[in-house]
């Protein structure tokens, strides 16, 4: 039964408590809650999504501002009050369409409703002080690590990691990009003719969605104002899929030919497997594997919706050798589990939930998988190693490991990429890197999430 009396702010605080308490992943919980309350109008759902995501990604800065006006530090507040304050301060500073008086009054009412009558005066007083004085808050000197930690709401150790890999100037550009809203990218199925693709794009545009060609991939389009993408014409019929451009580039770099045998070893949710299956065609085959039944169900869902018959989905631990598949694949796609630093602009809680020892363990896992899956590539075949991360150890370190230990040589990626992407590679000064079979895609330098892709050919 629908609850037509949903209190959006109460819903946001409840989500923030689950996410910041480590019980839920932000992108999954937000999606599930919006699906549950799908009957709310688009404006209300956009408000819930915006405020929840913003309160998470700017958490360090919000706490710094709160602590500038409150005698009780944010970290010592009761969990509900802490999240209520973060949500309200985010609105006061970063939303300009809601009057300050309404934000503060709603916060006070919500505190009372949840049994914090004795703290309602505290909530009212601190929020009014923030509203009057947040523009005068003194930050550490610009350019210092302390300033960057607050301004970008980024833990110190991640700043150190990025600086060691990219340098401070590049890191800041990436951090700034993480705080910029990311558009949705779709990829039109290769099964559609050019005329059918044009008709689909026209039909989507007629719904009021802004849809523009993405210069990085021939059949990629960037959407804004899309609301529910899965409700757009053509989605249920498998005419297009939601796939970020970085994921598409990973498949493009493989240079897949008609009739190729392909193995995607960590394939969920299935976007790369689907794209690869479309490229290899009816005479080729894709084996799409992942670790759990839940992950394989996601792959199956994508494969079935796109109407593909040349994909076999299997539950398999990538660290376990499959003797029957040794040197059977023309292409192996190894887009491996990683720290996820490249997608912090979408999965906003990642930065608070990871640490340096975890990175060391992730690199060990990546290499243990590479040791196994590299054996599936035929002599002269192609290995694609990629991550959605931005770190030396996960990316260039593992690329060197493949070259030095697993019997592969780097292969120039340039011939397989769109001219629009190559132009941005040149602007970023990464041409040599590309010719050496590697590409680190950085938000702020490319119109994409962060991603690393490398291409190798197995020595004969």
Can you describe what's shown?
- The protein is of the alpha/beta class and 460 residues long.
- The chain folds into four domains: 8-138, Orthogonal Bundle (N-utilizing Substance Protein B Homolog, Chain A); 150-180, no CATH class; 184-242, Alpha-Beta Plaits; 245-458, Rossmann fold, CATH 3.40.50.
- The protein is built from 19 helices and twelve strands.
- It has helices at residues 8-20, 26-36, 42-57, 59-69, 79-94, 100-113, 120-133, 145-151, 156-166, 168-178, 194-205, 245-253, 271-280, 293-305, 350-353, 356-373, 396-405, 419-427, 431-435; strands spanning 184-188, 210-213, 220-224, 240-242, 261-264, 285-290, 311-315, 329-335, 377-387, 408-410, 438-441, 451-458.
- The longest helix has 18 residues, at 356-373.
- The chain is globular and about 75 Å long.
- The mean pLDDT is 95.
Helix content: 40-55%
Mean pLDDT across every amino acid position: 95
CATH superfamily of the largest domain: Vaccinia Virus protein VP39
Instruction: List the domain count as a whole number.
Output: 4
Please state roughly what percent of the residues sit in beta strands, choosing from under 5%, 5-15%, 15-25%, 25-35%, 35-45% or over 45%.
5-15%
Going by helix content, strand content and strand pairing, the class is alpha/beta
Distance between the termini: 63 Å
Question: Total number of helical segments?
Answer: 19
In one word, what is the shape?
globular
CATH C-level category of the largest domain:
Alpha Beta
Question: Tell me about the biggest sheet?
Answer: 8 strands, mixed
Indicate the low-confidence ranges by residue numbers: none
CATH topology of the largest domain: Rossmann fold
Total DSSP E strands: 12
Indicate the multimeric state. Answer: single chain
């Amino acid at each position: 039964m629908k609850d037509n009396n949903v209190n959006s702010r109460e819903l946001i605080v409840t989500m923030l408590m689950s996410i910041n308490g480590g019980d839920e992943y932000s992108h999954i919980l937000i999606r599930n809650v919006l699906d549950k309350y799908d009957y709310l109008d688009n404006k209300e759902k956009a408000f819930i999504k915006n405020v929840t995501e913003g309160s998470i990604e700017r958490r360090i800065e919000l706490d710094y501002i709160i602590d500038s006006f409150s005698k009780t530090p944010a970290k010592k507040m009761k969990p509900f009050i802490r999240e209520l304050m973060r949500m309200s301060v985010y609105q006061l500073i970063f939303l300009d369409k809601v009057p300050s008086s309404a934000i503060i009054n709603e916060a006070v009412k919500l505190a009372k409703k949840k049994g914090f009558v004795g703290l309602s005066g505290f909530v009212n007083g601190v929020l009014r002080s923030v509203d009057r004085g947040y523009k005068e808050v003194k930050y550490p000197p610009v350019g210092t690590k302390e300033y960057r930690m607050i301004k970008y709401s980024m833990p110190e150790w991640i700043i150190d990691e990025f600086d060691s890999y990219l340098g401070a100037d590049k890191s800041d550009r990436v951090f700034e990009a993480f705080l910029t809203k990311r558009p949705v990218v779709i990829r039109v199925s290769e099964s559609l003719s050019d005329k059918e693709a044009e008709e689909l794009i026209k039909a989507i545009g007629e719904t009021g969605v802004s849809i523009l060609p993405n210069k990085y991939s021939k059949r990629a389009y960037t959407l804004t104002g899309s609301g529910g993408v899965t409700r757009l014409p053509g989605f249920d019929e498998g005419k297009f899929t939601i796939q970020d451009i970085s994921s598409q580039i990973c498949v493009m770099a493989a240079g897949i030919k008609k009739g190729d045998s392909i193995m995607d070893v960590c394939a969920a949710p299935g976007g790369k497997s689907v794209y690869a299956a479309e490229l290899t065609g009816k005479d080729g085959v894709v084996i799409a594997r992942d670790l759990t039944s839940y992950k394989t169900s996601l792959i199956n869902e994508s494969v079935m919706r796109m109407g593909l018959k040349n994909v076999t989905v299997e539950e398999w631990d990538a660290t376990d050798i499959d003797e029957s598949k040794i040197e059977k694949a023309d292409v192996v796609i190894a887009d491996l589990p990683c720290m996820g630093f490249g997608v912090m602009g979408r999965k906003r809680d990642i930065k608070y939930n990871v640490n340096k020892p975890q990175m060391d363990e992730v690199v060990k896992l990546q290499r243990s998988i590479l040791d196994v899956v590299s054996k599936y590539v035929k002599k002269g075949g192609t290995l694609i190693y990629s991550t959605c991360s931005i770190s030396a150890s996960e990316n260039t370190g593992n690329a060197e490991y493949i070259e030095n230990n697993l019997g592969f040589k780097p292969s120039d990626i340039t011939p397989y990429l769109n001219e629009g992407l190559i132009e941005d590679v040149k602007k970023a000064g990464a041409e040599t890197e590309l010719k050496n079979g590697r590409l680190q895609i950085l938000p702020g330098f490319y119109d994409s999430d962060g991603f690393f892709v490398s291409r190798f050919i197995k020595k004969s």
